[in-house]
Amino acid sequence: MFEFRNQNTSGLRRFVSHGIFWIALAVLNMFARQFSIAPERLAEAQSWFFLCWAIFTTTMLIAAFGLNVSLIVTFVLLLATFVLLTIGDLQGGPEGPVALYVKVGGYGGLAPAAAPWYVAAADVINDAFGYTVFPLERVGKRTANLQ
Fold first, then answer.
1. pLDDT tens per residue across span 105-114
2. CA angle, 80 as apex, 77 and 81 as ends, to 5°?
């Protein structure tokens, strides 16, 4: 929420959407277990859920090209994770014929978690020292904020 105070709407969208993703995924899985939904139906529902998030991540990736390389890496890795999870769940989930996609997507989801740690550390440490200790390589020049 501090991103809103700092007028960083891009950062606000990233943080809020990340929280919404995890809450929505938890609710989806809780309902599936509460109402005894068959695992293949849950996999199908999750595949559409992941597809929607892959589309959203693509828009965030495009926006990241106006920011820095670390965010581009984060969103490329996240998009790959969502695509793998979508394919795996469309084919039956962890019990389906291509369960490897779900496993690779799940473990691969750790990679996009590491890249934002670098961005956060760079923001905090660079601000604390007053100069660049950890560079955040910018992509191109932004001439206007069109948000």
1. 989 888 888 8
2. 85
